[in-house]
Amino acid sequence: MSGGVDSSTVAAMLKDEGFDLVGLTLQLWNQRRLAGHEGMPEQVQGRCCSIDDVYDARRVAETLGIPYYLINEQERFERDVVRPFVSEYLAGRTPIPCSLCNDHLKFDQLLVRARQIGADRIATGHYARNHYDEVRGRWILSRPVDRSKDQTYFLFGLTQEQLSRTLFPLGGYQKPEVREMAAQHGLALAAKPDSQEICFIPGGDYKAFIDAYLDEQGEVIPDTAGELVSTSGQVLGKHTGIHNFTIGQRKGLGVSSPNPLYVIQIDHDSHRVTVGSDHESLATTVRAGRLNWVSIPSLESEMRVRVKIRHRHEPAPATLRMVAPDVAEAAFDEPQRAVTPGQAAVFYDGDEVVGGGWIAS
Predict the structure, then answer these.
(1) CB-based burial of residue 49 (10 Å sphere; 0-12 exposed, 13-18 middle, 19+ buried)?
(2) Distances 22 to 70, 107, 110 between C-alpha atoms, Å
(3) 262 vs 11, 246, 247, 257, CA distance in Å?
(4) Sequence ranges of the binding site
(5) Where does the record place the tRNA-specific 2-thiouridylase MnmA-like central domain (predicted)?
């Protein structure tokens, strides 16, 4: 129970269906921890996983008459999500902390807790669907009815065991229907706004967070200052560190040009940041490693799929094949913009999640 309308409505739905419920909230990050550091707000309010959300979750549990527990996972969250996030950014990659959180905490530790209290399954407010396919003998993860809320991109890392013990009750509903159900159940947060930001980074200012976090830890940001160059190798200017850039970035490059420039490549070793035109930002292939297969046990031959390379990206048609152990390459039918190392590439066959991995190049 995150304290939002989705997980709260799920609890109400399952209570109506006669399930024996226990509400669990993971305490992941102290929102006051870096308040006041340079570039960070003095107060953080109305954020995902905040103390206000904990209060909201507890009130919903009281309204429904179910037991409720707050589980402190801050140490594990920092180790498995925050530290890798910072390290990846400093290396010039753009990580996805939400996927790491799902893999290492929400669907790993919650299942451990479920077993400890004698629960058979966990249920969440994610917009996704899952079912068991008797023919293939596998649990299948699929996109939800409400495409605008599709969260399967962040769930590609779930194992067969995790899928077998998870319920996604909202997969067949549109978000307005969910809010209506929340109101019908008398939940005070039926109109609560959705959180759109990473829970531990207020305002989405990654650089300010990294600066503040490393300062708190007594660490110094590595010197990765270097050159801004064109795709032909011409030096256009200097930059103060590769962690200030992401692939596809257009604003704040520090160089002027009669035509828009975009970050094309970030080289961790040379500290060079390559910029180019919109056309030069297009890629014909994407390679991903650390693969997890969902609807199939493994990829044995070429397969036609649609590939999603970031959360808001419309899956693009491509041909998928293995190019090395645990490395797959997708060749797009049409070039795609801003293929970003550190992000996920998730493969779809229709609505089904075939699998996915972490973008290497």
Answers:
(1) buried
(2) 11, 16, 12
(3) 45, 9, 8, 11
(4) 26, 125
(5) 220-276
Instruction: Give the up-direction half-sphere exposure of residue 38: CA atoms within 13 A in the CB hemisphere.
Output: 6
Cβ burial of 114 (10 Å; 0-12, 13-18, 19+) is: middle
Which tokens is 261 given? 């420039």
Active site amino acids: 101, 199
pLDDT tens by residue, 129-185: 999 999 999 999 999 999 999 999 999 999 999 999 999 999 999 999 999 999 999
* Neighbour count for residue 71 (Cβ, 10 Å): 13
78-100 pLDDT, tens per residue? 999 999 999 998 988 888 888 88
Which of these CATH numbers, 3.90.70.10, 3.40.50.300, 3.40.50.620, 3.20.20.140, describes 5-125+168-204? 3.40.50.620
Residue identified by tokens 């890798």 is 84
The whole-number pLDDT of residue 44 equals 54
Please name every residue paired with 71 in a beta bridge, in sequence order, or none if there are none. 26
| Homologous superfamily of 223-277 | Adenine nucleotide alpha hydrolases-like domains (2.30.30.280)
- Binding residues for ATP are 26, 125
Total-model pTM: 0.92
The separation between CA 53 and the C-alpha centre of its own chain, rounded to angstroms, equals 19
Q: How many residues are recorded in the chain?
A: 361
Whole-number Å distance between alpha carbons of 125 and 224: 40
Judge whether 61 and 53 are in contact, CB under 8 Å.
Answer: no
Packing angle of the helix pair 5-16, 51-64 (nearest 10 deg): 20
Q: Please report the pLDDT score of residue 196 as a whole number.
A: 66
The confidence score (pLDDT) of residue 42 equals 66
